[in-house]
Structure formats: C-alpha cells, structure tokens
Design brief:
This protein is of the alpha/beta class. It is about 55% helix and about 15% strand. It contains 12 helices and 7 strands. The protein has a 7-stranded mixed sheet, with helices on both faces. The termini are far apart.
Length: about 300
Amino acid sequence: MKPLQSRSGGCRARAAVLGVELRAVREEKPFGVRELARRVGISPAQLSSWELGIRSPSPTDVAGILGALGVVGERKHRILQIAEFAESDVIVLGQAGRPSHIAVANACASTARSIVDWHPLLVPDTLRTPTYAKAVQLATFPRGVAAQVVLNARTRALTSHSHKQEADLAVFVGERALTHPLVDPAVTAQQLRFLLELADERRARKTTINVVPDHSAGAETAFTRYYTHVGPITYFPHGLCGSFMLDHQDAYSAVIDRLAVTAYQPRESAALIAQHAARLDLELKDAKRGAGPAI
C-alpha cells in the first residue's frame, strides 16, 4: 500500500486537528455541509474551509458548531480545548484522568484514507489486543502511574478494534518485538496469533503487516501517520499524553519509505510471526513441564 501524498500545505496543527474533529463529528450525526452551515448561519464554503484546515475557526465558531450538532460532555470539552490552542506545527494533548490524545487519534483514524503504524520494539498500537496493551503499559511505566496509563491503553486498543475499518492500514513491526518480547510470553504469543489472523490473505481486509529486520535503519521512535483530508498528521504516543505533528518537510514520509524498502514482504513477515508464535508456545510448554506437578 502506497500512502497518499502530503496535502497539508500551509496548514498548522491546531487547524488540522480541529478540521478532523469537526468533520468526524458532523459525519457521525450525520449532517451534510450545507445543512450544518445553514444551522450555524455561515456559508458552506466557510465550513468546508474549516474542515479542510485551510482556515482556522475561533473558539466561538467551534462552540456554535458543536451546539448545532448536539455535542456535549467530554467530547465537547476536548474539541473546545483544541480550539483555544495557539497555532503551531505540533500540539500536545492528554493528561492524567483525561486521555484526550487517544480520542483525537481515533478521530484521525475514522477520517483517514490510509494509516501507517510503526513501533521498533512492540506490536504497534493499532493492532494491539487489550490484553497485550495492558501488559505493555504495566511493563514500561512506573507503578504509580501504571493504572491510569493502562486504562488509556485499553481504551485505545478497544476503540481501534471496534470501529469499521475503512482506511488502508500498513503496519511495520520491529523484529525485536518478536525475538525479544517485553511482556509475558503467553500474552505475546496470543498477540502474534491475532496478527496472523489479520495477515491471512483470505480475509477481506485492507491491512498489511511487515516485519522490519533489527539491523535496518528505521526510526527509533514509534509513530502513527494518518493520511487525512487535511493532509498527513503524525501521532506520537507518550503514555499519559500524545503529540500530533504536521510534517511539512515530509521527513516521516522518508522514514516510511525506508521501512518499506527494508521490511520483509507480507508473506515472509507472516511466516516469521508464525515461527515466533510457535517458539513461544513451545517454550511455555517446556516451562510447564519443567515446573512439574504442584505439591
């Protein structure tokens, strides 16, 4: 799958994320552009320019749109918070008790035409099972914040699997996630079997899974790139928060190109995933056998 070309132009992060959120909520209701513009008292062209990130609405404009759409509660709070931000190429969302970054990432996913997800050490976010997501967070965060991060991770895993997949999804998994799992072997084996189900060519899905060899010069930082109607938005998860970046120089397009060149092909990747799932299953059986009967 070849990702769509950049269309972000002079768009900034605040305008782009607002455009994604406004279109996502409008289409969920659902309202056409003309009908919503009439209710708000603006022209369809102006509303379209906001949804495309060409122009940036004021917080008052955003509040009017949300009111017309009947958006309340946490979602309203989140979108109005974004509307208050100053324009920049990067915005950071989320805090303890308010995982707004996860909700925005899911809005990006729901409006994207294609998605690329990469992690050098773990199975990437978009294909994690809730059990694997929980185990990852417990293994990588201090005990004091682990409970909140686990809740965030489980929310992300559950929501990413629950909505209908419309976008093409290209997932790049670092080989080290298979050879040196950071979480419980039984949980990792279950996660790898889930990947194999998704990689089955007989399934009518738009997902490709490629394993990237350890020696490859891929990015050291995990990221998800959403090719949306406002242009490519790159998301970086940071546990309790996450950042969203507009990459006007297409630096991350170059990273994705390098990953695609160095990665194993989907069939080779599936075979490698199956090999390591079987290895983990065998190791678990040997460990049980070695433990002997309980006394």
